[in-house]
């Protein structure tokens, strides 16, 4: 069962057009100034470690399912309209992602806030509302995975010093 959940979460991200290397690029963006020898491989390794956590998989499966159901138009109003418009007062997309941000301690919040504001790389694409796709939950999930992976990297680098 646990392997099935892990694979399902991973597939959900890929099927929604996000590659793990896209998330690793966000980690590079967040951490390159603090770790001069940081490689894309190490960023990816930390993304993989975050994705192996059950609470992360649960958040991914829940959020992406709601994005998909929104695109199909099968949710009830007024929730459907709020999710379609990515209504700024809704906020539950962020709450679900906080369960990911949290896993390596509070420094995750700083990283999450930073990418959420700047929207580099894949986050800019996910926020493009002209495509007709709904990524109300996915953009926060991706930002949160990158933030948690950055925290993990920072903790491990700190342990080595
Ligand atoms: Mg959102």
Oligomer: single chain
> How many distinct beta strands?
0
Radius of gyration (CA) equals: 15 Å
Question: Helix segment count?
Answer: 9
- By CATH, the architecture is named Orthogonal Bundle
CATH topology: YutG-like
Share of residues in helices? over 70%
Structural class: mainly alpha
The dominant shape is globular
In whole angstroms, the N-to-C terminal distance is: 38 Å
CATH class: Mainly Alpha
How can the largest sheet be summarized? none
Description:
With 161 residues, the protein is mostly helical. Helices cover 70% and strands 0% of the residues. The chain has a single domain, classed as PgpA-like (YutG-like, Orthogonal Bundle), CATH 1.10.3760. The chain is globular. The termini are far apart. Magnesium ion binds at residues 86, 93, 136, 139-140. The site of magnesium ion has 5 residues, from helix 9.
Would you summarize the structure shown here?
It is built from nine helices and no strands. It is an all-alpha fold.
Question: Can you lay out the helices and strands and say which pair or pack?
Answer:
Elements: H1 2-15, H2 20-31, H3 40-51, H4 54-72, H5 79-84, H6 92-101, H7 107-118, H8 122-126, H9 138-160
The site of magnesium ion has 5 residues, from helix 9.
């Amino acid at each position: 069962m646990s392997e099935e959940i892990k694979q399902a979460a991973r597939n959900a991200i890929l099927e929604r057009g996000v590659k793990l290397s896209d998330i690793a690029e966000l980690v590079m963006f967040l951490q390159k100034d603090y770790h001069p020898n940081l490689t894309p491989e190490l960023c990816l390794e930390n993304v993989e470690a975050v994705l192996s956590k059950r609470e992360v998989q649960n958040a991914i499966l829940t959020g992406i399912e709601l994005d998909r159901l929104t695109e199909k138009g099968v949710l009830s109003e007024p929730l459907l309209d709020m999710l379609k418009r990515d209504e700024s007062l809704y906020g539950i997309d962020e709450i679900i992602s906080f369960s990911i941000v949290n896993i390596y301690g509070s420094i995750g919040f700083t990283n999450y806030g930073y990418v959420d504001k700047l929207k580099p790389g894949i986050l800019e694409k996910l926020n493009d509302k002209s495509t007709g796709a709904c990524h109300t939950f996915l953009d926060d999930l991706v930002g949160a995975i990158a933030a948690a992976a950055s925290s993990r990297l920072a903790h491990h680098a700190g342990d080595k010093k």
